[in-house]
Amino acid sequence: SSDLWVPNSDVGVAGKRTYDHSASGSYLEDGGTFEVQYGSGPVAGFYSIDTMSMGGFSVSGYKFAEVTTASGLGAMYEIDPFDGICGMAWPGLTRTQNPPFQALVDSQQLDKNVFMAGALHGVAVNNQSISTAKVAIVDSGTSLLTGPSDDVDAFFAKVGARVNVYGTAVVECSELK
Fold first, then answer.
1. How many CA atoms lie within 13 A of 170 on its CB side?
2. What's the whole-number average pLDDT of the chain?
3. Considering the entire predicted model, what is its pTM?
4. Under the phi-then-psi rule, with left for phi > 0, alpha for psi from -120 to 50, and beta for the rest, what region is 152?
5. What is the maximum span of the chain, computed from C-alpha positions, in angstroms?
């Protein structure tokens, strides 16, 4: 995913941080319809334009989606701690003008036009190696992480993750071991 979507204040899911465009002095109506199908189900809403802020930086006039229907994500969305999606994939995959981080680069506010880079030499938790795996996938547009089963299971055990009834491993940041 390369898009940014946030739950609109009318999405109707308790406990989610939502966006209320009527409370923004810089909101502009776009009028376009947003629909996307994930493996877990569809979400839908409409496009809006406003100031996007992250990490102490702001980009004005940014087009993003306000999701009004997330029912396709089912109970997983209701119990998982994420509110929306901040897609970090390539610009060619976005439905808007630019992915959030490309918009930040284009704003020329960064010292370097690099968000994240690195090589995987294994996985360690609290300086204890739990894997020598050189292959893993982090789908930054969702809450998914995958890799060799033994290594993923070892990672979950080290950080204290619990697998819920939907098969999703969850760990609260405040409870990390």
1. 14
2. 83
3. 0.69
4. alpha
5. 51
25 phi/psi in degrees, rounded to 5: -85, -10
140/144 Cα distance (integer angstroms): 7
Q: Is the pLDDT of residue 47 over 60?
A: yes
Q: How many Å apart are CA 3 and CA 158, to the nearest integer?
A: 32
Per-residue pLDDT of 117-136, as tens digits, reads 556 677 777 777 777 666 66
Written as one letter, the residue type at 56 is G
On whether the CB atoms of residues 36 and 3 are closer than 8 A, the answer is: yes
CA 6-8-10 angle, to 5 degrees, is 150
Whether 92 shows a pLDDT value over 80: the answer reads no
pLDDT surpasses 60 at 177:
no
Distance, CA of 170 to chain centre: 15
Helix locations, 80-148, DSSP H: 100-106
